Amino acid sequence: MKNKILTEYRFFMSMPRDMRLVLITNMIYAFVLPVIDIFVGAYIMRTSDNPAMVAVYQLCVYTGIPVTFFINGYLLKKINISHLYSFGMLLSGISMMFMMTLSVISMRGVAIAGLIMGASFGFFWANRDFLTLDTTNDQNRNYYYGVETFFYTITFIFVPAVVGWFLVRSTSLGWFDGNIAGAYRVVAGVVLLLTILSSIVIHQDKFRNPRQKQFLHFRFDLLWRKMLVLASLKGMVQGYLVTAPAILIMRLVGDEGTLGAVQSISGVLTAVMLYILGRTTKPTHRLAIFASGMTIFLLGALANQILFSALGVIIFVLCKVLFMPLHDIAYFPIQMRVIDVLSVKENRSEYAYIFNHEFGLYLGRFFGLVLFIGLAFYVSETVALRYSLVIVALIQMISIPVAKNVIKHVNKTIDEVKAEHPELSAPKLYA
């Protein structure tokens, strides 16, 4: 076992240093993401008992992201990418602290906190995506995302369980004078410290900024338009999944302790499987991984719809825990490969595609959240939580043939670019 661990460590150390630093930064920040994804929604539900506030918060988060992508594009002309990246991480801690200090949870306060969190995600993801694109190539991206999703999955096992235990114990033992808001403030403080640590790591090397060409475009190659369809479908399921699981668990299962435990049940197996997939699979295996994730999500949604009970929710969350990393480990390398190819073909900055991709995601997220809010308000919360998840899962199955077509189109475009421009020196294109 020791030899196996040493072998994997040596393999990790054989990767480029800049790639390793980006990975380590993301590993530290991975301890923050479960708190933001799970417990912020639970905090709003506990203090307001209003699912609409959770949905409004997420809608503001998702609105802040593309706006910040736009602002970030201009700031990159003058500010080092490492500074903007670390600022995004720090801002997520600040957003949590802001919400936890609100004396009364109101729609306005939730909206402001959501916009701040959206800005933090915008700075984080915009610069993270470019750093990942710039420090990896098509041959090592399966490994990169395998390690990253492995660590994200581990933290989604460990962090929810610990935070859930802490929140429950603080109530049962009367810590903070029996006020759970005090316990949430402690969690927010730890989050802020972790964002500071991850910011220190990313400054251990000097990373280049994107080529400063125009990044705002309205016309793109057909291949990119197909990629935007895939992004919208991904965004749609994101928009639904940031709201529905927390509300389902609080309504049908129990408190935050149960919320953390449910998220942790299937995580160990998932994490090990993801690392193995990242270590052993090749670019040709991405579609099979992608399709497997989609199928698992559909099965989970069907279980929730048929049972609509604590057991159904647990099955659904287990499937969600498995689906999300499987989806990401296949989706992100596909996206990066498309950007590799089109940035050469259309002679544009890679950031132009990263920026535009966010609007494809936003369109899907907006639709997913509006669908949930509309059903919860104008039909019933039961319909929103029980039936529409199956509809969302069925729509997601369209992603499989779309992804297959995108991969086929990428390979065709590479051959075309090679034939038309044999003089080009583009290592990422030929990787």
Q: What would you give as the CATH superfamily?
A: MFS general substrate transporter like domains
Radius of gyration: 21 Å
**Number of strand elements:** 0
Largest sheet: none
The quaternary structure here is single chain
Kindly estimate the percentage of residues that lie in beta strands according to DSSP: under 5%
CATH architecture: Up-down Bundle
Regarding CATH, which class?
Mainly Alpha
Query: Could you report the average pLDDT, rounded to the nearest whole number?
Result: 82
> Residue ranges: pLDDT <50 for 5 or more in a row?
none
Taken in chain order, the helices and strands follow as HHHHHHHHHHHHHHHHHHH
Name the shape in a single word: globular
Distance between the termini: 33 Å
Helix count, DSSP H or I runs of 4 or more residues: 19
Give an account of the 3D structure.
This protein has a single domain (about 1-205, about 215-430), classed as Up-down Bundle (Growth Hormone, Chain: A). With about 425 residues, the chain is mainly alpha-helical. Helix 7 (about 140-170) runs antiparallel to helix 11, helix 9 (about 220-240) packs antiparallel against helix 18 (about 400-420) and helix 12 runs parallel beside helix 14 (about 310-345). It is globular and about 70 Å long. The two termini are about 35 Å apart. The model has no long low-confidence stretch (mean pLDDT about 80). It is built from 19 helices and no strands. It is about 80% helix and about 0% strand.
